[in-house]
């Protein structure tokens, strides 16, 4: 039995760079307060995966925009992944190639615009949504916004450990370099770059465990009366 329940329709935005722990923390917080989690990165990853599968040029904004318009009505974005033609694409979009493609897709303003409505619609009944621009662009009225950071080295170490768990042989320095490049692209892009919303609470997770981050978030939600105790 959970100790907490989110108030009806609560929207929690968690933004931050790759490897800052957003996914883990969002899932743990969700199980504490009974809200679904929606990972917005999956949307960009899915468009990238379909672009790769259909030979759409990832550097061609118009083609990516057309692809995203075509895909949006056909896909079903759920807490357990993106469903398309009866298949869950969650696993297929997690790889490095798709991740690198997603970073290009995410830089395309038209694609971002085409994905806005689906994000707002899915959030309407309450959720924890994680990404890069959730607090700043997608859900500017979210009742709680967190901006999760961690040092580049620690984020690279976490990514590298994830790869190792999946028996993928990767070099830590290589992961660090790729992360650095992705950070730069996400932060410097023209459309909805990664930035902390003015009213977001920053949490540096470099030396914190996931449960310590979640505790801080619960403290904020409790003080704002956005969660009620079920005990
Ligand atoms: O969090 P992730 O690695 O799954 O995200 C994949 C890419 O999509 C990454 O380059 C950042 C981008 N992204 C974004 O621009 N806006 C979001 N709300 C979520 C992800």
- How far the N terminus sits from the C terminus, by CA atoms, comes to 9 Å
Query: Structural class, from secondary structure content?
Result: alpha/beta
> Per the principal axes of the C-alpha atoms, what is the gross shape?
globular
CATH topology-level fold name of the largest domain: Rossmann fold
**With helices defined by DSSP (H or I, 4 residues minimum), what is the helix count?**
9
| Radius of gyration (Å) | 17 Å
Based on the coordinates given, report the CATH architecture of the largest domain: 3-Layer(aba) Sandwich
Largest beta sheet, briefly? 5 strands, parallel
In CATH, the homologous superfamily of the largest domain goes by the name P-loop containing nucleotide triphosphate hydrolases
Order of helices and strands: EEHEHHEEEHHEHEHHEHE
Q: In what range is the share of β-strand residues? A: 15-25%
Which strand order does the major sheet show?
A: 3-7-2-8-9
Contiguous low-pLDDT stretches (5 residues minimum) are: none
Which CATH class of the largest domain? Alpha Beta
- Could you tell me the mean pLDDT? 94
Q: Please count the beta strands (DSSP E, at least 2 residues each).
A: 10
**Secondary structure: helix percent:** 40-55%
List each distinct ligand once.
2'-deoxycytidine-5'-monophosphate
Structurally, the number of domains stands at 2
Description:
- It is a single chain.
- The chain is of the alpha/beta class and 231 residues long.
- The chain has 2 domains: 1-36 and 126-231, Rossmann fold; 41-124, no CATH class.
- It is built from 9 helices and 10 strands.
- Strands 3-7-2-8-9 form a 5-stranded parallel β-sheet. Strands 4-5-6 form a 3-stranded antiparallel β-sheet, covered by helices on one side. A two-stranded antiparallel sheet has the order 1-10.
- It is globular.
- Residues 18, 40-41, 44-45, 99, 102-103, 106, 131-134, 182, 186 line the site of 2'-deoxycytidine-5'-monophosphate.
């Amino acid at each position: 039995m959970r100790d907490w329940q989110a108030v009806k329709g609560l929207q929690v935005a968690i933004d931050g760079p790759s490897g800052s722990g957003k996914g883990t923390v969002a899932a743990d917080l969700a199980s504490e307060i009974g809200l679904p989690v929606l990972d917005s990165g999956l949307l960009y990853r899915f468009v990238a995966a379909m672009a790769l599968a259909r030979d759409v040029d990832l550097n061609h904004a118009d083609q990516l925009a057309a692809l995203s318009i075509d895909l949006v009505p056909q896909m079903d974005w759920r807490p357990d992944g993106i469903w398309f033609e009866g298949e869950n694409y969650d696993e297929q979009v997690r790889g490095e190639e798709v991740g690198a493609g997603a970073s290009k897709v995410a830089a395309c303003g038209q694609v971002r615009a085409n994905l806005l409505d689906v994000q707002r619609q899915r959030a309407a009944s309450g959720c924890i949504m994680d990404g890069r621009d959730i607090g700043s662009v997608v859900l500017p009225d979210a009742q709680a916004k967190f901006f999760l950071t961690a040092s580049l080295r620690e984020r690279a170490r976490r990514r590298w450990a994830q790869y190792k768990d999946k028996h993928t042989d990767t070099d830590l320095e290589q992961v660090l370099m790729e992360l650095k490049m992705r950070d730069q692209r996400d932060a410097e892009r023209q459309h909805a770059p990664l930035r902390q919303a003015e009213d977001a609470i920053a949490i540096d997770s470099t030396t914190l465990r996931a449960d310590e981050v979640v505790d801080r978030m619960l403290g904020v939600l409790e003080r704002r009366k956005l969660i009620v105790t079920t005990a």
